[in-house]
Design goal:
The complex is a heterodimer of chains A (362) and B (270). Chain A is an alpha+beta fold and 362 residues long. Chain A is built from nine helices and 21 strands. The N terminus of chain A is likely disordered. Classes of the chains: A alpha+beta (362), B mainly alpha (270).
Chain lengths: 362, 270
């Protein structure tokens, strides 16, 4: 968008409030232009945190600020109502107004007179490639179309911060693969703080660099997605946060497989067909490690060599960070880690099957 | 071919009997003296006055109920507050209250010797033997029908739609007007039709509270009773009854059409 605020604002939130069975007690910071993903199992309190920031839930105690503006300060009895926060929220199932046309939905939050609002709505629909749906009613749209309209509606109001609650969970898997790339591009362009909630660590790692793992109302670990994946602080995080995401360019290989040339060097193969920019996704537990040069006679096609950057033992397993142009984490048993003498600085070969390599449009 | 069982035959007979018993009196209103004589009877000054008074008072009462009841129902539906179920019960009480009791209760509250009687008199308002009194009685007995439907209709509107509107900058009134009202439209309309139907048929409370003065407080149902009490008044009573039956049937049909339709958007189906 052309109207990116000159100065990037930062959203700071500290919220404490009782939820069913436990207390939400979380603090976070989201900088403009750097989407933050809240990841955690269903019922962990992620959505409540989003709703508190948007002003739809009044926490018992808390302080929420965007830049120099205070949205909530329970100590000073300040609480800006939702409609005056200018905080967009994309609901999990989009909550489009069923009786209004798509154009009126998108125009709803836009500023100006009737004509200006309609023009803004049409421009936004155009941008999301759904201008042809302007006259349609939401109930007749497909999941992917609703998602675009919901995003267009939130952005047409020119929010100063944007919350997305499971923005892709209502989509079927095919649509989701395509929508991830689109959403990534949109979020990357937005200059406002963006917080998105997802229960899929992979989705979080695809959409945001910064992730915060939420468990029972608390943020148990935060950091760069690759960092959290390779150094989980607890076994809960290890269970939950596992995804390797590598970016590259896909082309068809001579063996009928797809070859992805990774950004920064190296190539991997995948069974799925794709062309152009893609994200390569592998679970850490699909990746095996070996000392380099051990010529393995097996069916594994993807091998990359790199230096161990970290070894984090969680219970009976170990997460191993491997420094490559794009970092990667593998999970092996603690026993294997000892047997291989894994330690930072050691060179290893990380290997995984082409069939364990998922590709997502980027 | 198998013979139908005895029970099936009995059930069929029972069904026919019920339908006939319910329909015969209705048809008899139109068939007893013939449509021509009914039309003649409606030409009477007193009959036309009663119908006109009924139309005016019920529409005014309906307007009051809609204007005050709609925001009240919205508030009750949206908010959770202590004593909510008590409020809901209080709203429904006039529904089951015998009309004569409603009339006595109104007299006790707003009659000349009632609690607020002197205050109302002091304000220069006359209710007893006045058309305004009819409207008060109609509002009292019909409002619960509308409130019940409206509260249910507002409660059935997906709450996230209002929340979405707020995050898009809509204040409370805009949320009400652009999201809640359209979403509850069908329920509000059927509640309004029921309330109007109840007001049109109101008899006991009006008679006790406002009296039965021709042209002032004698609405159609009161006129039916009054004509019937006079010698030779049966036909005029039938004529007024026929009109009320037609209006009631039209209202019932309207309620069925509005309430039976699941709503083209299906937003209430979740």
């Amino acid at each position: 968008m052309s109207s990116t605020p000159a100065a990037l604002e930062t959203l700071r939130a500290n919220v404490t409030t009782p939820l069913r069975g436990f207390e939400l007690d979380a603090g976070l910071e989201a900088r403009g232009g750097e989407p933050l993903a809240l990841v955690g199992p269903s019922g962990a309190g992620k959505t409540s945190l989003l709703r508190a920031i948007a002003g739809l839930l009044s926490p018992r105690r808390g302080r929420i600020e965007l830049g120099a503006e205070t949205w909530l300060d329970t100590a000073r009895r300040v609480e800006l109502p939702a409609e005056r926060r200018s905080c967009g929220l994309v609901f999990q199932d989009y909550a489009l107004f069923p009786r209004m046309s798509v154009a009126r939905n998108v125009a709803y939050g836009a500023a100006g007179g009737r004509g200006a609002r309609r023009a803004a709505a049409l421009a936004m629909l155009e941008r999301f490639g759904v201008a042809h749906l302007a006259a349609a009613r939401p109930p007749s749209l497909s999941g992917g179309e609703r998602q675009r309209v919901a995003l267009a509606r939130a952005l047409a109001a020119r929010p100063r911060a944007l919350m997305l609650d499971e923005p892709l969970s209502a989509l079927d898997s095919t649509t989701r693969r395509r929508a991830v790339g689109e959403l990534r591009a949109v979020l990357a362009e937005l200059g406002v703080p963006v917080i998105l909630v997802t229960h899929s660590f992979e989705e979080a790692a695809l959409l945001a660099r910064a992730v915060a793992i939420v468990d029972r109302g608390r943020i148990v670990q935060r950091g760069d997605a690759a960092e959290v994946s390779s150094r989980p602080a607890t076994s809960f995080v290890a269970d939950f946060a596992g995804a390797v995401v590598l970016h590259g360019e896909a082309e068809s290989g001579d063996d009928g497989l797809t070859v992805v040339r990774l950004r920064g060097g190296g190539a991997v193969r995948a069974v799925a067909e794709a062309r152009g920019p893609v994200a390569v996704c592998v679970y850490p537990w699909e990746i095996s490690l070996a000392a380099p040069g051990v010529a393995a006679e097996d069916s594994v096609l993807n091998r990359v060599e790199g230096e161990v950057s970290s070894v984090t033992v969680v219970g009976n397993r170990a997460r191993v960070g491997v420094a490559l142009p794009q970092p990667l984490s593998a999970e092996v048993t603690a026993d294997s880690a000892r047997r291989l003498g894994l330690r930072p600085g050691l060179r290893v070969t990380a290997a995984w099957k082409a069939s364990a390599t998922r590709l997502v449009g980027d | 071919m198998r013979r139908p069982s005895t029970f099936a035959a009995l059930a069929l007979f029972a069904a026919l009997l019920v339908i006939a018993f319910l329909l015969v009196p209705v048809i008899a209103v139109f068939a007893d003296v013939g449509l021509a004589r009914l039309a003649d009877a409606l030409g009477e000054e007193s009959a036309r006055e009663a119908l006109w008074l009924s139309l005016r008072t019920t529409l005014i009462a309906l307007a009051v109920v809609l204007f005050v009841g709609t925001p009240a129902a919205y508030l009750i539906a949206e908010r959770d507050f202590p004593g909510r179920s008590l409020v809901l019960t209080a709203i429904e009480l006039p529904l089951v209250m015998p009309p004569a009791v409603a009339g006595i209760a109104l007299l006790a509250a707003f009659g000349p010797d009632g609690i607020f009687g002197p205050a109302i008199e002091g304000a220069g308002i006359e209710l007893v033997f006045e058309t305004a009194g009819v409207v008060v009685a109609l509002v009292f007995v019909s409002a619960p029908f509308y409130l019940r439907g409206a509260i249910a209709a507002f409660a059935a509107v997906d709450g996230r739609l209002g929340e979405a509107a707020r995050t898009l900058g809509a204040g409370p009134f805009r949320v009400f007007a652009s999201v809640a009202l359209p979403g509850a439209r069908a329920g509000l309309a059927s509640g309004a039709a029921l309330a109007w139907g109840r007001a049109l048929g109101e008899f006991g409370a009006t008679l006790l509270f406002a009296g039965s003065l021709q042209g002032v407080t004698r609405t159609a149902p009161l006129a039916i009773f009054s004509e019937f009490s006079e010698p030779g008044g049966f036909v005029p009573a039938l004529a007024l009854s026929a009109v009320l039956i037609l209006v009631s049937a039209a209202l019932l049909l309207g309620v069925k059409l509005l309430g039976g339709e699941p709503g083209p958007q299906g937003s209430r189906s979740r």
